[in-house]
Inverse folding.
């Protein structure tokens, strides 16, 4: 009974604003001129252009996933070897791009990669090239931008498993005669396979429905499925085909998600994370599934030992260089954006010829920008509060109670993290079409909450699982009723987690472009929509100013979060963390 | 042992009128807890007098913590009754049961100062202002932490934190104090010091204490009575001396202290049982107790200190190994197919036993016990 009450608000909101519109979208795709028909699907199937787009999208998502894996693994591995303090700082650097608007990062890549941008200038000066390379508004730009945008999604799960691998296992392997690289291949790598799978799943799924980066950095040759859908809705008015393509994209994503859901729903797993069982399971699985691999390593033993010895010398420098370059790649856009904000030039040029605050004052004088900013702050803020209000009780229900619908409800609540925003936005556009809610701030509040609440649920679940429940038993033994315990013990201690949850939900709404494209109206234009138009139509240093302001606010929020965390966690004795 | 009898007689003279000092009697009747098909606690009955200090002793998985958690109300029993001062409390939520509890992980609220932690149960009971302050000061004094009130738990050592937890659990004068392996996270020296302090505090406040531990030394040295649990079943509940000298089961005999087990043949005649060990050439005649009704094989239990060794070149027993511990020498002896540990006191001038030495074994029949079963 209690879990039902706790889940009721979020389930009602998700039903109304998410499940029903998506269901309507699927139904719409199965209709033509008011009758049941597979017409839209037949037309799509007969269109070679669509098939090419699908193939290109899959190829792009797969390539981005592989590149991310290759450069994220050394970084995650290097971070897992760092001291806890250094590791948390490096993770913060990895998080920074994730918390910053995709628009800002994409804008920075346009600057960086443009024919007269810093990268081309550097190459020209070094004499590597004789004329500027065309790296933006084609697939090169899309790949670079996408990899940078998705990289954090790969680093986090990899780091999570690598940090759990007991370092003494690799040492034990070395003491038993394995060279370090061999110990890595036999012990650490197999143990990190779960992280590789969940990282690849996340990046691949998220790349499939990506919209902003391909649209801004790509050219006509790198047209993807999400762009096709929005084009059909916003320009061509071909709603039936848009509905069919959205349904296909959604079902494809859900199918991949369900195949790998065990890795993703692991958050709800009650078994303690045991290093040894994790390793044992993965290694035995590896040998059993690929016996050929075992035989191959046996055959290659002699030469491979020499190779390992060579690698033993080279691996440390190679690891740090690779990790360093990846970090540089992550922060490069911010390095470029900051001087640009102080440019004195009336147009975009890098490096700026002179510095001034003209673009700051131009922003403050422009009521359109200020209106958009206040709109975004207000409605993203409201949605963040709403997300916390409905997400926190849901997390309590999912962590503290056992009921049959637990895993399905969890999957439903986190699914907006997986289903492409273009699909959700199109479904809402259809559901609200003709009503006064298009162009109404309430539509934004609803959609921001639907994409923000999953973050609050995930963050709170992690926080609640770390929470030492003995403290609640202690409170009960001291005469405190469950509600008083919640007020005096549980919530005060979870305050930093609540702050993180709210921050994530806010940023997700504040950064949104996709819903803005479909739901904006004359009286409801969020800030990212203004930025979007600016990047597409004139591309001025104005965006850099917003980026700098955004970074300052983000830094302040993080400091605040660290402060709140220090106040509560600094008081937490080490013992109470390990029961 | 004597303390517990004194309590009983005191209650008998006081009659039915329950005064403040006599609250805190606990009894569990046929209490069972199932986790799926597993009986974590299996039909346990136990009755604890007001003011008594009872230890629940067992290895991990014995059900001792589950039993405590059911008394605390943190686990729901599958069947049976839990009575506090004659009232069934199975359905009373934890926070209304009115016991104090000390946890192994201390469970101090990390976001509150020491004083706020100790004031917590008082505030839940509606106390305000000066009353709270006075009680907190008294409680801090009780655990010898005067002046630590303004600190945070993380600024205290493990032993100090556990003393704060004790103060917090006692400050509202609960008739019953539950302690779940309270000293398990501390090092040996600190543990012994706190054992003494807890005994002194128990004398001072007079609450009933139920104390869970896996450390038999701790249980024997602290408690008035010790309840030994194994695989969810109560093996025996008695004073430390009863457990050591008259173990009710082979498990208790083995678990408490050191014990040798010799396989014996059993023969019954009339009301007596004759246990004969072929290896040692020993015969013990005992009254036939309930457990020895059937079977022709048994185990004879004898403690190392009741095995006498005399050097004898013609004897069949051989010394395998020995360990000198100052006042005693532990000697491992091979007799036929069995090995026995003997403990002999060391007196000045007398030589120690050496490996390979032949010895004659003497076992005092009065200090042996016979159990059914075989090894």
């Amino acid at each position: 009974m209690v879990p039902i009450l706790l889940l009721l608000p979020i389930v009602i909101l998700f039903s109304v604003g998410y499940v029903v519109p998506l269901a309507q979208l699927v139904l719409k795709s199965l209709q033509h001129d008011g009758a049941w028909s597979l017409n839209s699907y037949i037309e799509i199937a007969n269109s070679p252009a669509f098939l090419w787009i699908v193939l290109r999208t899959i190829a792009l998502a797969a390539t981005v996933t592989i590149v991310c894996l290759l450069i994220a693994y050394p970084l995650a591995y290097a971070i897992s070897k760092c001291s806890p303090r250094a590791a948390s700082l490096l993770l913060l650097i990895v998080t920074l791009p994730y918390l910053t608007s995709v628009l800002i990062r994409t804008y920075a890549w346009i600057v960086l990669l443009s024919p007269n941008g810093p990268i081309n200038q550097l190459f020209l000066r070094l004499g590597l090239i004789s004329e500027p390379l065309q790296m933006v508004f084609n697939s090169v730009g899309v790949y670079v931008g996408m990899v940078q945008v998705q990289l954090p999604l790969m680093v986090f799960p990899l780091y999570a498993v690598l940090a759990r691998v007991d370092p003494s296992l690799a040492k034990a392997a070395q003491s038993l005669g394995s060279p370090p690289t061999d110990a890595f291949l036999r012990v650490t790598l197999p143990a990190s396979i779960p992280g590789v799978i969940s990282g690849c799943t996340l990046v691949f799924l998220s790349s499939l429905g990506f919209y902003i980066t391909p649209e801004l950095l790509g050219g006509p040759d790198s047209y993807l499925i999400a762009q096709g859908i929005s084009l059909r809705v916003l320009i061509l008015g071909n709603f039936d085909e848009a509905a069919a393509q959205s349904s296909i994209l959604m079902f494809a994503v859900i199918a991949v998600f369900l195949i790998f859901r065990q890795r993703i729903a692991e958050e709800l797993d009650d078994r303690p994370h045991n290093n040894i069982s994790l390793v044992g399971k993965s290694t035995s699985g590896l040998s059993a599934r690929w016996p050929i691999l075992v035989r191959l390593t046996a055959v290659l033993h002699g030469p491979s030992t020499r190779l390992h010895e060579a690698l033993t010398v080279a691996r440390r420098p190679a690891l740090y260089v690779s990790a360093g370059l990846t970090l540089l790649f992550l922060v490069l856009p911010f390095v470029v954006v900051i001087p640009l904000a102080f440019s004195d030039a009336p147009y975009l040029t890098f490096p700026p010829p002179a510095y001034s605050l003209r673009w700051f004052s131009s922003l403050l004088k422009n009521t359109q920008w200020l209106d958009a900013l206040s709109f975004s702050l207000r409605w993203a803020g409201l949605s963040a509060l709403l997300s916390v209000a409905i997400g926190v009780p849901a997390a309590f229900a999912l962590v503290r109670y056992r009921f049959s619908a637990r895993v399905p409800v969890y999957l439903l609540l986190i699914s907006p993290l997986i289903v492409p925003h273009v699909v959700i936005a199109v479904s809402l556009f259809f559901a609200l079409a003709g009503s006064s809610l298009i162009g109404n701030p309430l539509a934004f509040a609803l959609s921001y909450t639907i994409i923000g609440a999953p973050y609050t649920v995930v963050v709170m679940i992690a926080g609640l699982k770390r929470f030492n429940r003995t403290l609640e038993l202690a409170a009960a033994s001291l005469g405190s009723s469950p509600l008083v315990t919640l007020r005096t013990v549980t919530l005060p201690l979870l305050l930093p987690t609540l702050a993180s949850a709210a921050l994530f939900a806010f940023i997700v709404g504040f950064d949104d472009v996709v819903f803005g494209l479909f739901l904006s109206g004359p009286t409801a234009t969020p800030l990212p929509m203004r930025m979007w138009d600016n990047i597409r139509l004139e591309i001025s240093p104005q965006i850099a100013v917003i980026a700098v302001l955004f970074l300052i606010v983000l830094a302040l929020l993080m400091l605040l979060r660290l402060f709140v965390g220090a106040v509560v966690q600094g008081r937490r004795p080490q013992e109470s963390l390990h029961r | 042992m004597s303390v517990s009898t004194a309590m009983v007689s005191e209650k008998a003279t006081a009659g039915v009128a329950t005064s403040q000092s006599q609250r805190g009697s606990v009894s569990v009747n046929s209490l069972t807890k199932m986790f799926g098909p597993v009986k974590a606690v299996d039909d346990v009955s136990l009755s604890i007098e007001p003011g008594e200090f009872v230890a629940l002793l067992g290895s991990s998985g014995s059900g001792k913590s589950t039993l405590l958690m059911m008394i605390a109300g943190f686990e729901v029993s599958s069947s049976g009754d839990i009575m506090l001062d004659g009232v069934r409390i199975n359905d009373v939520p934890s926070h209304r049961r009115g016991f104090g509890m000390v946890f192994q992980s201390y469970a101090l609220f990390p976001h509150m100062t020491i004083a706020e932690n100790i004031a917590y149960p008082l505030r839940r009971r509606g106390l305000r202002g000066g009353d709270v302050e006075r009680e907190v000061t008294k409680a801090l004094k009780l655990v010898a932490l005067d002046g630590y009130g303004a600190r945070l738990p993380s600024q205290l050592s493990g032993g100090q934190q556990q003393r704060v937890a004790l103060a917090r659990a006692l400050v509202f004068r609960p008739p019953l104090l539950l302690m779940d392996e309270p000293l398990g996270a501390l090092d040996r020296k600190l543990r012994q010091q706190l054992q003494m302090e807890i005994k002194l505090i128990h004398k001072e406040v007079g609450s009933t204490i139920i104390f869970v531990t896996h450390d038999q030394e701790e249980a024997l040295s602290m408690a008035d009575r010790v309840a030994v649990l194994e695989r969810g079943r109560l093996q025996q509940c008695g004073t430390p001396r009863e457990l050591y000298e008259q173990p009710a089961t082979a498990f208790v005999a083995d678990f408490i202290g050191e014990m040798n087990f010799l396989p014996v043949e059993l023969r019954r005649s009339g009301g007596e049982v004759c246990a004969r060990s072929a290896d040692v050439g020993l015969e013990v005649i005992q009254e036939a107790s309930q457990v020895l009704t059937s079977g022709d094989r048994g185990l004879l239990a004898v403690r190392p200190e009741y095995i006498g060794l005399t050097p004898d070149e013609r004897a069949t027993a051989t010394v395998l190994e020995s360990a000198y511990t100052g006042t005693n020498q532990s000697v491992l002896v091979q007799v036929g197919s069995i090995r026995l540990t003997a403990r002999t006191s060391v007196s000045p001038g007398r030589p120690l036993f050496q490996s390979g030495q032949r010895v004659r074994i003497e076992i005092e029949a009065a200090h042996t016990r016979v159990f059914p079963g075989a090894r």
About this structure: Residues 106 and 167 of chain B are 11 Å apart (CA to CA). The two ends of chain B are 33 Å apart (CA to CA). Chain B has two domains: 26-246, 258-372. Chain B touches chain A at residues 72-74, 93-96, 98-101, 103, 105-111, 120-121, 124-125, 152-154, 156, 158, 161, 165, 168-169, 172, 178, 185 (CB under 8 Å).
